[in-house]
Amino acid sequence: MHIERVPNRNSHPTVLLRESYRENGKVKKRTLGNLTGQPEETIEALRVVLKGGRMMPMTSALTIEASLPHGHVAAVAGVMKSLGLKRLLGTKQTRYRDLVLALIAQRVLQPASKLASHRLFNTTTLGQEFGVDDANKEELYKALDWLGAQQERIENRLVKQHLQDGSMVLFDLTSTYLEGRQCELAEYGYSRDHRPDKLQIEIGLLCDKEGRPLAVEVFPGHTGDPTTLTAQVNKLKARFGLKRVIVVGDRGMITQARIDEDIQPAGFSWITALRHSTIRSLAKADNWPSLFDARNFAEITSPDFPGERLMVCRNPFLAEDQGRSRRELLAIAEQGLETILQAVQEGSLRDCGQIGKRADRVLRKLKIARYFNLEIAPGRFIWSRKQAVIDQETALDGIYVVRTNLPEKEISSADTIRQYKSLAQVESAFRDLKSSLDIRPIFHFRADRIKAHVFLCMLAYMVEREMRIKLKTLLFTDEAPLLPDDPVMPREPSPNAKEKTGTRRSPTGHALQSFSTLLEQLATLTRNTVRAQWEPAAGKPFEMLANITPLQQEAFRLLSISP
Questions:
Q1: Residue 268 located in a structural domain
Q2: Domain edge (last residue) among 340, 368, 395
Q3: Residue where a domain stops, chosen among 395, 430, 456
Q4: Nearest to residue 83, comparing CAs of 466, 458, 471?
Q5: Are 126 and 117 in contact (CB under 8 A)?
Q6: What is residue 173's predicted lDDT score, i.e. its pLDDT?
Q7: Which domain does 493 fall in, by range?
Q8: Residues facing 177 on adjacent strands
Q9: Which residue ranges does the record annotate as region Disordered (predicted)?
Q10: DSSP state, 208?
């Protein structure tokens, strides 16, 4: 038996169930039934049966044996490939290289300890994608050791790709705490994590002028900011072979001593800022308020800084904030001092030592003792403002001074200020390292492992940074903030950013995402291992992706990759 379609000139074909037979040696056909008008799936099912197939419900025809989140893995792996990360780590395929690549991807997707990472490899397609689904904990620690041994070579390649003589480099320092007390690098120091109770390490990050990370170094936790700069200058000169570099660093990093002893002897240039104490001294010698009649910055020179240009900047928004903060602190302090005065006048507080302690407690807590005169005697307490000091500091509200030895023909005043403000990109990198990439807390106790862990986090940040740039139209990010003519003023939101803020949607109509929620959305694209139950395909598993959503499709388009 078979199904035959008989065409009709002016209507749909007739569908007949027919049977072939022989009569007097000739093959003839007879019609057993007319299937015209039957649903197409019924006709097709009958055709399968007639050919020897077996009918079964669709739910039984295919068996999904495994389903793993895949889209977010494909996105990260694709960006790593576009960055050439595999070749950057090593031109030859090795087990350790594959493990390190997997650890970098895992750090972007779901930061975890090395102990947990090898278990997580098989909760997504990550283990399959990098060929490490059979990895164990010991292998991951050895892979981390391998990465530490390759750090210098990898950094050399990054610098060669992105820096040349005359390039500008950004350098900044942060700290992060550790768990445990066994590491030789762990020391108590100034904690930027606000955890003075924890031992910590210092991390110095070197970036190009776009904020791309190029090298990272770990220092003992009590290392002073200026001390770390010496190592960076030596690295740029000796290891990277750069003869001329413009080093951009903050006022705590690039001190006069570091300029005299490190930067200038190396033949490098600098862009940094002056400390507040130096600014106060300069302000006494010049009539600074008149500098800002026309705009918020002005270039001056000073005999105290021969061969340098000084850009005096006044940020009106910062000035307003500082003034308001001072007024609030003064009000709180005066309320506390009045309480002490009342106790003295009532006779409940007479001892000079006790009066002094209470007044000191009020002013030291608020860090504004310099604003007050105090007169203390037995049973007597008088306080008054040092108005001259307050007026002097008020006049400097919102003011900072950028310094450089670069001549004006190489960089204008406005661009010098902008380059100094670009240090915010390194600060942003530190925030990402500490938040989304979870560099802390660190559980390693060997110094070499801690250094390798920090380097691994830097490489993961390089990947995440690239992803954020490419996906920015889908994120709560301004793709192109407007650069104001006045370099002191903050960047203004672009028209696209204003529209995104109002509609909460991307230009292509998708709901805006944070980076983490976008990864979660991509993860819903699963890769499924499917086994067919019909002959002759029965027993042969194959892989297929779930249906891709419009948001996922747009994300992969922006990343220029295929899942």
A1: no
A2: 395
A3: 395
A4: 466
A5: no
A6: 86
A7: 476-502
A8: 200
A9: 485-510
A10: E
- Is 246 contained in some domain? no
Domain total for the chain?
Answer: 3
Residue 213 belongs to what H/E stretch? strand 213-220
Angstrom distance (rounded) from CA 243 to CA 236: 8
Provide the residue count of the chain. Answer: 563
Q: What local confidence, expressed as pLDDT, does residue 522 receive?
A: 97
Could you tell me how far CA 408 lies from the centroid of its own chain?
34
- pLDDT of 182: 66
Helix, strand, coil % in the chain, rounded to nearest 5: 45, 20, 35
Cis omega (within 30 of 0) for bond into 7: no
> Is 323 contained in some domain?
yes
Write the DSSP assignment of 358-420 as a string of letters.
HHHHHHHHHT-GGGEEEEEETTEEEEEE-HHHHHHHHHTTTEEEEEE-S-TTTS-HHHHHHHH
Q: Is residue 372 part of a domain?
A: yes
Residue 143 near residue 118, CB atoms below 8 Å: no
For 74-84, what is each residue's pLDDT tens digit?
A: 999 999 999 99
Residue ranges in 397-493 assigned as alpha helix (H): 413-421, 424-434, 447-470
Q: How high does pLDDT run on average in the chain?
A: 87
How far apart are alpha carbons 212 and 425 in whole angstroms? 9
**Does residue 267 register a pLDDT over 80?**
yes
What token pair was written down for 468? 């954020």
pTM of the model: 0.82
* Spatial distance between the Cα atoms of 46 and 455, rounded to a whole number of angstroms: 63
Which tens digits make up the pLDDT trace of 279-296?
988 887 666 656 676 678
